[in-house]
Design brief:
heterodimer, A: 591 residues, alpha/beta, four-stranded parallel sheet, three-stranded antiparallel sheet, 8% strand, flat, B: 206 residues, six-stranded mixed sheet, two-stranded antiparallel sheet, 7 helices, 8 strands, 25% strand
Chain lengths: 591, 206
């Protein structure tokens, strides 16, 4: 039964110019955005940004893919054929909805070429991208269900399409709307936001809550069409489950924030510099509450800290400004630590610790460069670690391959002045820092042996260069308590560390030298901490661009010509009405 | 076919006003009435669930042919056959209505007359118990009208045909005549061969 319905739907789509128009338009649009992003991101960060844009395009394109589903049948009078047939309404709905999903799947296939290109260039892991595609498909399916439901209520495809677009956009913008609402309303609305549920997938994670949300929305929207008792009952249970998932964690008592460590308290008591500290946690209220608890503790220990809830509460962003007003602090002293994307808030104290250490960095002996691998992802926050101080006796480089020109210049200067340098390398980065150090004749010696969690010891004379492993996951899994990591032996010697694991060791472990202060970005920190706790690391860091690559101008032009011209034209010829691929398939089927 | 107190409103406007009638099984009834009398609405209501007969056993040819115009005639008939679980001798049925030359033509390339024939074809192909035709003679040439009449005589279904084309219908043998006027059933009597439909229509409607 289903094949004939599919064939009919396919013929209705692909024997007009509409199908070719949709696919070609999508190819053009996606290529345009891809090339635009490629100008700014020459790293795997492009994948996340591009797929987020594809999600936005889905909101625009899905209504046009579903507007004909029922409304056209009603307008042409063919609906009566289906009504008087032996087909049940739920089969008709499933068929039409699934056909729309397949159309959306076809659109996603179009994006595989540019995404594949990025993977080829950057060697980024595939799994997060695959999960992001799953999320996009789930999003498209839900939007198709919405489009089908609206199409069912209308007699005109145009009206149905416009309604689908308006409702879809409103639904999509729920997330943005939350920013302006009271936290209570924002918390209430967050679980029905499309973006909220798409985000875990785009970050390379599977969220059961989000999967349930998309299934529930599809079922509920299907009930609008089918209206059967069984369907309604199924929808009811799904809605109940989704609500339970969405709101239940907010109502139970969460474990309180971890107490501040002695080190943090010590640091707080020695704060001497006017600095703005920006902490941003995930939007969820419980985490925000825990962050607030931590900040309250901070206030208790330092008379200079004042927690300022000036930003929209939904963002859960808290400004801590010390020793005066924000506006009175010279701009060159403004810097902050962004503690974002923290799904696992158990590391809240680490984040606070890190932030505090960052606060006192100007009075430490070491200057930290490149501690912000993703400044682009947090607009409004500028990282200027280079401008903080040049008084450091040594340099710690968190080398993500994203050092600014100024930071590289400072590194050059440190090399010339023969300052001790600690480099933390990440295995999969095509890292310019290592090349820079090698070209300057900077070599490393000594090693760190990680004997057990939170304990470090140093061995002299061990070779320190460890070859990068094929993937971070492999490295994390293969780490044992006796794994040797490269590290410094004593002050004045250079060292190289590998991987986020090393970062976390430096942060958490009782480091033999207090003056070796290393600050990493939140994602790297949480990766490292997760490793320590034997948990899989969160993946956002990998999605946010630690896999850079370089394109020559010629390569860029070639890619632009291929994706902007050849690719859409090829898709048009593939889909064209009379002699395209689909027309041939349908003809063959007929014969 | 037994209808009792059928009323239908669109935006509080009464389209069908308490209509009751019964039609004998296997009989052929012609439904007449001026514009806006409610003929199309009545047939649509009967075709979409008002009758006790299962929908799959009703054949309905609406005024506007329900065609997927991107499909060819053969694909369309295959589609109809599939959704009604039929094993149709397409070519035989098409030949009956002189459509066999157009089996591989897209429906949007057919003339309106042929499209109307396809409409009739889809309504009878599953051998329905009740057949409802709304203006079946529209756009048909005399030759095809004769074909349809021949077909009508051969059918064993209970037939209700709504039309304005009195001249084309005069050659058919009807069992009963119904006349709707302003949403009400103004006339429902057995048809007599000596009776002129034209005279009867004008007499009742006036």
């Amino acid at each position: 039964m289903m094949p004939i319905l599919y064939q009919k739907e396919c013929a209705v789509w692909m024997r007009t110019h509409f199908g070719a128009g949709i696919f070609t338009g999508f190819a053009l649009l996606s290529s345009f955005f891809f090339m635009t992003f490629l100008l700014f991101f020459q790293s795997s960060a492009l994948i996340g940004v591009f797929l987020s844009t594809i999600a936005m395009i889905a909101v625009w394109i899905c209504p046009f893919m579903t507007m004909k589903s029922f409304a056209q049948e009603k307008q042409d009078g063919t609906w009566i054929l289906l009504q008087t047939s032996s087909l049940s309404l739920h089969r008709v709905w499933i068929c039409k909805w699934w056909f729309s999903c397949c159309m959306w799947g076809g659109c996603l296939l179009i994006t595989l070429i540019p995404i594949g290109l990025i993977h080829f260039l950057s060697h980024a892991p595939f799994l997060p991208t695959f999960l992001a595609y799953m999320g996009l498909f789930a999003l498209g399916s839900t939007l198709c269900a919405l489009g089908c439901a609206l199409s069912y209520t209308q007699d005109s495809p145009a009206t149905s399409g416009i309604m689908g677009l308006v409702v879809g956009l409103l639904w999509w913008m729920t997330e943005g709307l939350n920013t302006f609402l009271h936290p209570a309303w924002a918390n209430l609305l967050a679980p029905i936001s499309l973006q909220h549920h798409l985000q875990p997938f785009l970050e390379g994670q599977i969220s059961l809550e989000s999967v349930l949300f998309f299934i529930t929305c599809t079922a509920v929207l299907g009930t609008v069409v089918v209206r059967g008792k069984a369907m309604a009952l199924c929808s009811f249970f799904l809605v109940a489950s989704t609500l339970l998932f969405a709101y239940y964690p907010h109502t139970i008592s969460l474990p309180s924030a971890p107490p501040l460590s002695h080190r943090t308290i010590w640091v707080l008591q020695h704060l001497q510099t006017p600095t703005i500290l920006t902490l941003r946690c995930h939007q969820r209220a419980p985490e925000f509450a825990r962050m607030s608890q931590l900040l309250d503790q901070l206030q208790k220990h330092s008379p200079w800290i004042k927690v300022h809830h000036a930003l929209p509460a939904h963002e859960a962003e808290v400004l801590v400004h010390i020793n005066g007003h924000i506006t009175s602090i010279p701009k060159h002293l403004w810097y902050g630590i962004v503690a974002g994307s923290t799904e696992h808030f158990f590391n809240a104290e680490i984040l606070v610790n890190t932030a505090i250490l960052e606060l006192i960095r100007p009075i430490q002996q070491w200057v930290i460069l490149g501690s912000s691998p993703m400044p682009l992802s947090f607009p409004g926050v500028r990282f200027l670690p280079f401008s903080i101080s040049q008084r450091g006796e040594g340099v710690v480089v968190m080398a993500h391959g994203l050092l600014s020109v100024a930071e590289q210049a400072y590194l050059h200067q440190a090399i010339l002045e023969k300052k001790p340098i600690l480099v933390v390398l990440f295995p999969l980065c095509k890292n310019p820092v290592r090349d820079l150090l090698a070209s300057r004749g900077v070599s490393a010696n000594g090693s760190l042996i990680f004997e057990e969690p939170n304990h470090l010891s140093i061995q002299r004379g061990t070779p320190i260069w460890i070859e990068p492993l094929p993937s971070i996951q492999t490295k994390i899994l293969s780490l044992t308590s006796k794994t040797a990591l490269a590290g410094p032996t004593e002050k004045g010697e250079n060292a190289v560390f590998y991987g986020p694991f090393a970062t976390s060791v430096l942060i958490k472990g009782p480091h033999p030298r207090d003056e070796w202060v290393v600050i990493g970005s939140c994602d790297l920190l949480s990766s490292g901490l997760a490793t320590l706790l034997h948990q899989p690391p969160p993946t956002p860091a990998y999605m946010l661009g630690i896999y850079p690559f370089r394109l020559t101008k010629l390569s860029f032009v070639l890619i632009a010509v291929f994706l902007g011209v050849v690719y859409p034209v090829g898709i048009f010829f593939l889909c064209r009405k009379d002699r395209g691929y689909f027309a041939r398939v349908l003809r063959t089927h007929r014969a | 076919m037994n209808i009792q107190h059928l009323s239908y409103f669109i935006q509080k406007k009464c389209i069908l006003d308490d209509i009751s009638f019964s039609i004998k099984k296997g009989s052929k009834t012609i439904l007449l009435g001026p514009n806006g009398a409610g003929k199309t609405t009545l047939l649509h209501q009967l075709a979409t669930g008002y009758l006790a007969t299962p929908l799959s056993k009703i054949g309905y040819a609406p005024e506007k042919p329900p065609l997927y115009k991107e499909l060819t005639l053969l694909e369309y008939m295959r589609f109809i056959a599939h959704i009604r679980h039929l094993d149709l001798p397409y070519s035989k049925i098409a030949k009956l209505l002189l459509l066999d030359a157009h089996l591989h033509s897209p429906l949007n390339s057919l003339s309106k007359g042929y499209q109307q024939l396809v409409n009739i074809l889809q309504s009878i192909c599953h051998d329905p118990e009740i057949l409802l035709w709304d203006e079946p003679f529209t756009h048909l040439d005399p030759h095809h009208v004769a074909c349809v009449h021949r077909l009508l005589n051969d059918l064993s279904s209970t037939v209700l045909v709504s039309t304005h084309h009195l001249l084309e219908t005069s050659v058919a043998t009807w069992d009963a005549v119904m006349i709707l006027n302003k949403g009400r059933l103004a006339y429902h009597e057995p048809y007599e061969a000596s009776q002129s439909l034209d005279d009867l229509y004008h007499k009742v409607v006036r």
